[in-house]
Design a protein that fits this description.
276 residues, alpha+beta, 2 domains, six-stranded mixed sheet, 10 helices, binds zinc ion
Length: 276
């Protein structure tokens, strides 16, 4: 077992005790992380090829390394992983999973389309009638299915991106928007985290990642009593929010996949307050 994996599983165990309410979701994450490691090792070659000639220009122009709206991506390896992930769902909800497998088989659900749709910004999606779900297992599996291959890209280009002039609030690797951020070091630098590829990038502290608003009057945050480690940063210009974990006082490395699940109550709260 990789060192990273055993450390993550240890963190999950700890959080299961602190937040028994999230035990089932954390168990799902546990199973995912074990499969992720297995698939990471199995990956034959780079699924996503990056054109290395224009990285600096792309970065300073706000263009992420991978463009998921292109149609020529070979998703066969992520697809295999996706079907393996569905077995995690099958153990818990056999009937719903059977239905999903049937829809995939008959073509009313299509993996490649689900991947592409997941990269369309919510604001641009045309299905407002669709019910909003805080925790969407199928969506999570679609996202996860790309993760091992995307992590490879994120690791490979980490230094190049750090040296570049990336100043956007969305991910420089895959274009997804962050859901959670971390405050680190004594200075309290803020790092936004991409759940899709695991990349973290430095971003101004007093600025909304979603609309770029820097007006302090319109930026606020709320916390919950007894959970001072967490806060929800909100923007009253665009009505969006991002969860923030404060790791300034510890030398521990945050595991933001775990933190994201352990703070789902903050998503519910933010949504009740009218933030998206
Ligand atoms: Zn990303
Ligand atoms: Zn905003």
């Amino acid at each position: 077992m990789g060192e990273m994996l055993s450390k993550s599983l240890e963190t999950i165990e700890k959080y299961k005790n602190i937040s028994p309410h999230y035990e089932e979701l954390l168990e799902i994450l546990e199973e995912i992380l074990i499969l992720r490691e297995e698939y990471r090792r199995k990956l034959k070659e780079n699924v996503f090829l990056v054109d290395e000639t224009h990285i600096d220009k792309k970065m300073s122009g706000g263009l992420p390394l991978i463009d998921f709206t292109r149609n020529n991506l070979d998703l066969s390896q992520p697809r295999q992983y996706f079907f393996k992930l569905l077995e995690i769902a099958k153990k818990r909800s056999p009937d719903e999973t059977e239905k999903i497998l049937k829809d995939l088989d008959e073509g009313s659900l299509d993996y490649d389309n689900m991947v592409r749709d997941s990269f369309v910004r919510e604001s641009e999606q045309q299905t407002p009638e669709e019910e909003e779900r805080i925790f969407d297992l199928l969506g999570l599996f679609v996202e996860e299915s790309l993760r091992p291959a995307l992590e490879m890209v994120a690791e490979k280009y980490h230094d190049a991106i750090e040296k570049s002039e990336w100043t956007e609030g969305y991910c420089p690797v895959c274009s997804k928007e962050p859901k959670i951020a971390e405050l680190r070091e004594e200075e309290g630098f803020r790092y936004l985290y991409c759940n899709q590829c695991g990349f973290e990038w430095n971003y101004l502290r007093i600025k909304c990642p979603f609309c770029g608003n820097e007006d302090q009057q319109e930026l606020a945050y709320f916390t919950i009593e007894g959970e001072e480690k967490y806060r929800v940063d909100v923007c009253n210009n665009c009505k969006r929010y991002i969860k923030t974990v404060d790791f300034r006082k510890t030398t521990e490395k945050a595991n933001l996949d775990v933190e994201d699940i352990a703070t789902l109550h903050l998503d519910i709260l933010a949504s009740e307050e009218g933030y998206e």
